[in-house]
Amino acid sequence: MTDDSTPIADDGEPSGAPDTMADFAIGRADGGYGGSSPREITEHPAIAPLSFLLGRWKGTGKGGYPTIDDFDFAQEVSFTHIGKPYLIYTSRTWRLITDADGRLVRGADGQFERAQPLAVETGFWRPQQDNKVEVVLAHPTGITEIYVGEVKGTRIDLATDVVARTETAKPVTAGKRLYGLVPSETREGEKDLAYAYDMAAMGLPLTPHLSAVLHWDWID
After folding, report:
1. Count H helices, E strands: the chain?
2. Which of 67, 89, 90, 139 lies 20 to 30 Å from 218 when distance is taken between CA atoms?
3. Residue-wise over 197-211: b if at least 16 C-beta within 10 A, else e?
4. CATH code for the domain of 192
5. What is the pTM of this model?
């Protein structure tokens, strides 16, 4: 598969293209957030509108839906690149433990205690002309989604164009996502990544499902 359909031509492999899977895993350019990888890879010009996402983000959020109980979760999200005109995206979440009063429980290390793993999703963010973006996501629950949307500064609005399901997957039919940088409430002068996700599933229309605030936490 080639990148011929991208708005900015890619004339062969960039000089910083990874030679090994280890290079692939750590590869990212310094997007102005500090820190560096042992091997820097030049960003493809096409990803400039999305470069504020680069790195690893960690935080907590809340989830709910009319068909399930509300819950708190921890999340880790990473956006990386390999010098090609797209971002590589992964997200993992874990249910957080709460006490009888619904307060999050901290362990001896001061971190919120995690219970079982929840969702995993991975995919690619593909910037297009005129600040448009296409996002392809895959879920181990038998669902794949194609989102289309628009980048407005550090805000990204996405809505599903296609949702495909295996025979055994739950009946998810549509999704809507909003991502954006917001002033951090815990780190003066810094920005956090906030997002909200509405889902149409189980015969229901688009309904709020997840929201979280994540802080930038890249560690090589």
Report:
1. 1, 10
2. 139
3. bbbbbeeeebeebbe
4. 2.40.128.20
5. 0.80
Token pair listed for 1: 């598969």
Is the model's pLDDT at 101 over the cut of 90?
A: no
Per DSSP bridges, beta strands 207-216 and 114-127 are unpaired
What's the total number of domains in the chain? 1
Residue 8 lies in a domain: no
Give the number of C-alpha atoms closer than 13 A to the C-alpha of residue 9, restricted to the C-beta side.
2
pLDDT in tens, 60-69: 999 999 999 9
Q: Which of 209, 214, 219, 220 has the alpha carbon at shortest distance from 60?
A: 214
Residue 196 inside a domain? The answer is yes
What domain range is 102 assigned to?
Answer: 21-216
Candidates 160, 165, 133, 164; CA nearest to 147 is 160
Amino acid at 84: K
